[in-house]
Amino acid sequence: MQTARIEHTVAQDAQDAQDAQDAQDAQDAQDAQERSWELPLQYRASEELERFLGDPNNPANVISFHNVMQWDEQEAFPQAAVDELYRFGMNHYYVPAAYGGRFTSYEEFQSMARVAARRDLTTAITYSTLIWSTLIWVGGNEQQKRHLAKVLRWTKDAPTLAYSEEQHGADLVANHTKAVKTEGGYRLSGEKWPINRATRSGLVAVLAKTSDARDSRSLSLFMLEKRDLDPAQYSNLPRVKTLGLRGCDISGIRFNDCLVPESSRVGEVGEGLELALRAFQVTRTLCAGLSLAAVDTALRSTMQFAVNRRLYNGTVFDIPNARRILSDAFLDILICDCMATAAARGLHVSTEQFSVWSVVVKYFVPVTLERTTQQLSVVLGARHFIRERHMSGIFQKMLRDGGVVSLFDGSTQVCLHALGLQLRHLLKTRRREQLTDDGARRTRLTTVFSLDETLPVFDGTKLDLFSRGHDDVMQGLVAAINALRALQGDEALGVTVLSHLKQMAGVLEQALRDFDSALEAAAEAGQHPQSALMFGLASRYAQLHAASACLQMWLHNRDALDAFFAGGEWLVLALDRLLAQPQTQKPDLPDAYHQRVAQQLFYLFDEYRLFSIVPLALAKTESMAMNAKKEDRHEC
Amino acid sequence: MSANAVRKIQDIKVNETLAKQLESTLTEMLSKTLRIDAAEIDVTRPLPHYGLDSIDAVTLAGDLEDWLNVDLPSTLLWDYPTVAAIAGFLEEQLDAMPEVKAKLEGRVTESKKQGVIDKDDLDDLDRLDPQQMDELLSNLIP
Fold first, then answer.
1. Which structural domain range is residue A361 located in?
2. What angle do CA A424, B76, B62 make, to 5 degrees?
3. Which of B32, B57, B62 has the CB atom closest to A216's CB atom?
4. What is the pLDDT of residues A85-136, one digit of tens each?
5. A530 inside 8 A of chain B by CB
6. 3 state SS of A332
7. Does B32 sit within 8 Å of A274, measured CB to CB?
8. I need a surface site. Which of A96, A168, A175, B138 has the fewest CB within 10 A?
């Protein structure tokens, strides 16, 4: 730290000038924000949760970075944090309104989960096992639904998901855990490992073989309540040591000829795998919120350093390369936000297509944002490696914990494989239907993308294992490009930006054509579905889906969101970031666009707002905020 | 002589009941998906034995849908896990879909008309030497 001190002294002279510059930047950003916009209603609950949980920089709050880091160091289960979420009543948001809960939309739900998870992924991932209630909402009978609603709302019994086995991983059909029919129920035998919250949960969703065949109908699903079981007939396996999520109860459960009631079976005998895969379509989509939360804190932590750390004649944020890394990280967040928000809404609208949407999102968002966080660690430098001091060392925890998202619920490879298998059908349907103006699809897309449109009630019975070639986001791309071409510049949208957007639309069209012919060639050559080429094509498809989601999100919300969003500079850069390949012919984009993104980043950081297309207000402690900044300056 | 026999034998290939035709098309699709020789597929053996996993099976149901241009459950191959069972299910379903059935049957009937093998043709076959027989067989395999 010796060098840092010297630099600090040298920089002292320039400090006043720099402060003036900072103030000017903030003022500019403020001016740009002047156009008023209203927070969409479905984000109010998240702001409420923010206020309830309080500023995570303040150690006086239960879920503060200080406490979170202490629990992590001790590998302690974050019971106090979990209790805090119960105190807010988060559990009610896991129960559909029709069963007395407060769940209304996945968009609202995902945003709330993001607000909780930006404080601590260990807490969020522990709490999020309540989402396995989805299995009952999608496949349970009326009695099971009513009962689970009661359990979730009025007790702290949470479900855990006991699918995987040590020897079989994602190959569920190869599982060994058996359920043998007996009078009044089943006898369960086998071991599930590694399972998040296996020991501390009150309920267990178990997949077990109900037939000796090794086929897709050999599994059935059970939702067990531990209180109904004979404690001598099951036991828990020891906690597993993990890289991240060190406080999580990642353990296992062993059933020893354990009698379970007939009424615990969810769906018909043999329906287990189908139900599991359908519920995954919901949970995989929601995983995006966890990654977005982790990167929000990683970026905020890096900004806290970059804005305050003085060296040479300014701050780290003033160094063009560092500023670019930071603004690019913000772009990645905006891209993933568009994709994840569209998908969370899409669950209500294009439900039948989620065998595609869910794997696109589950692949793209975690992988992209993990890379983003790695990039940020370059700017944060030594501090990213230190488990204390700068914001209590939360960055490295988010880096470690965030890495789990691409692993669970269907890993990156599982998702790319599943997507690869459907690519042929997706291309055929898109080609067949792109020339027809499908009014129903247009209506669906408007509902998906316009944040002020009311979403229909989610209907899980529509989840299907195959999308029949449909993916509204991609099928709507040509129409979106045409809509963009018809736009005229206005007050909110400069003519230069618009012209660059139109040029980028051309790049996007070309990218789509290139993708289609590459896919056709691969199909003709009879490419193996698990070849590197098919995985590469699946990945490219996800990028194009992201580009299409960004464009449509922008087209539908230019009047609904803030001036930065409407201005479109970010969209030009986002499309460029998604589509650029070495051979791409594309316009030279002005540096001013990057500056605009950096300015917005600074504004959101300074104003305690979420890094998002919907920058909701975060909790802050006035005196704390000041102290944190001062402290950091002294630390440097 | 040999050309005539080839034509007749090709006709035998399509001169089948609707179920048989469904079976042979299914077998072809499977052999493509699984990358194994169609001749190796036993129509009564469960498909997971050939390495068809749950997700592949869903995709294949999609291929069938495309081929027949009808809606099918995406778990069709989970519930009817052999070629014969799928063909049986489809044949039953086709009763409710007269246009599709007529289209498929049209192909069957047409081939029946020209596909009757008589004794002369069989005699023709008897007279082939091994090399001619090889040629004939290799012509039959696309």
1. 2-118+276-405+617-623
2. 15
3. B57
4. 999 999 999 999 999 999 999 999 999 999 999 999 999 999 999 999 999 9
5. no
6. helix
7. no
8. B138
